[in-house]
Amino acid sequence: MGRYVLQRFIYMFVTLFLICTVTFFLMKLLPGSPLKNPEKLTPEQKQLIFVKFGLDKPVPVQYANYMKNLATGDLGVSYKYDNRKVTDMIKTRIGPSAQLGAQALLLGTFIGLMFGIIAALKKNTIWDYGSTVLAVLGISIPSFVFGAVLQYYLAVKLHLFPVAYWESFKYTILPTIALSVFVTATVARFSRTELIEVMNSEYIVTAKAKGISQLGVIVKHALRNALIPVITILGPMAVNLMTGTLVIENMFAVPGLGSQFVNSIVTNDYTVIMGTTIFYSALLLIVIFLVDILYGVIDPRIRLAGGK
Fold first, then answer.
1. Which of 30, 40, 158, 227 is deepest in the core (most CB within 10 A)?
2. pTM summary value
3. How confident is the model over 164-191, as pLDDT tens digits?
4. Which long-range contacts (CB under 8 A, 24 or more apart) does 110-113 make?
């Protein structure tokens, strides 16, 4: 097990190093200027700013300095927001994104499992077909479409919820529902498929022979094994919901990390783009590692490579 953990850490380190390197050089290839209002600056003022941020040095030197600072946890400072540290900007914005993502993940997973169980219990019935159609629609239609529909009918027409902004729990309901639709559809589809497959296993047949009800068999025996592929997708999906809700955050004026990332792209705030990308990547790699560990917890028969 220790060897496996070490291998995974090396994999994460190498992957993150490559992401940092590629991101840095991609930023150097982008058109535009990272300076604020460059057309209003004199050549002397531009030079002073370049010197201040180390942009006057050769690109290899800039890269070496950036990686050196990154090793100490320094993601640099923003070019556009009065030299604010990128780490501080991420800390400020991660809260709303995390709350929104967690709510959407929990709601979508719960409803998705319910749909999946019902579809598996009622296989080849109207319930199964209806659940499948809804799952396909939920996966196919972008979340911002659901968001726009919710805004129009529940906020603008019926005045049941605020249209946008972020002040209290009530403001989180519509964006949470919009984001949870994809989670619900994905979990329902995966859990249905896996439950139907697991229900044909020998130990499930034995459990049924003992007189256990079909629902009891699913809850006590089948669901545990069927959750393995579901957790596989929930890990990366959780990171995506927490940090990648770009359109939804802008639609509902959520002051989260996603909207900040979009703004940094629009304003050519290169250090914020790089810092946020690295943060996303590190978080995703950590979650993937934790998901691998959870395999063995959910099903003891699974043995991680290198852990024997």
1. 227
2. 0.79
3. 888 889 999 999 999 999 999 999 988 8
4. 111/180, 111/184, 111/187, 111/188, 112/183, 112/184, 112/185, 112/186, 112/187, 112/188, 112/191, 113/187, 113/188, 113/191, 113/223, 113/230
Higher pLDDT, 149 or 33: 149
Give pLDDT, residue 104. Answer: 92
Q: Does pLDDT of 18 surpass 90?
A: yes
CA 258/CA 241 separation, integer angstroms: 10
Fill in the DSSP letter of residue 218: I
Place of tokens 């099903």: 299
Q: Which CATH architecture has domain 95-267?
A: Orthogonal Bundle (1.10)
d(CA 281, CA 275): 10
**N residues, the chain:** 308
Integer Cα distance of 293 and 112 in angstroms: 23
Q: Which amino acid is at 231?
A: I
pLDDT at residue number 162: 92
